[in-house]
């Protein structure tokens, strides 16, 4: 059973119970909304030609939409690579190149760095949660309801193609 299948296995049973809660805003996504959102985003990515084994980069802080996109990618058999939103454009470009990322999603505050990194690494398209010049609003791709293909993944794959350390370097200066 894939991670996404496990997370969503009892979504119908839990229905209107909170699945994700955005702490700063208090915004809640129920299990039913999560399941439907994952289905919609997977369908949008599939329509855009995103396929099994391709890499989708997440360059954003923790948001409910992040989890939705993550599980949609996994549902399609894609590879999720997560990038700390504090990475510089050079650090991000190195990760995107190493992973051969095809698509990237970020937040408006990080679009400029994402654009520099994407241009240097061959990322085909940048999506943004919200609106920002130089990126496609995620709702344009993720908002269309259609049936995605059946799950093509039998296990989660997180940054499995990246050759750089997944853990950040931490330094403490006196």
Protein traits:
174 residues; alpha/beta; 5-stranded parallel sheet; two-stranded antiparallel sheet; 7 helices; 38% helix; disordered C terminus
Inertia-based shape: globular
Mean pLDDT: 84
Give me the number of helical elements. Answer: 7
Placed side by side, the strands forming the largest sheet appear as 4-3-5-6-7
- SS strand fraction: 15-25%
Which class of secondary structure composition applies to the elements?
alpha/beta
Rounded to the nearest angstrom, the radius of gyration is: 16 Å
> What are the secondary-structure elements, in order, as H or E?
HHEEHEHEHEHEEH
* N/C terminus separation: 47 Å
Low-confidence stretches: 144-174
* Count of extended strands: 7
Largest sheet, if any? Answer: 5 strands, parallel
Helix content: 25-40%
Description:
The chain has 174 residues and is of the alpha/beta class. 38% of the residues lie in helices and 16% in strands. The protein is built from seven helices and seven strands, in the order H-H-E-E-H-E-H-E-H-E-H-E-E-H. Strands 4-3-5-6-7 form a five-stranded parallel beta sheet, with helices on both faces. A two-stranded antiparallel sheet has the order 1-2. Strand 1 and strand 2 form a beta hairpin. Helix 3 crosses helix 4 and helix 5 crosses helix 6. It is globular and about 45 Å long. The termini are far apart.
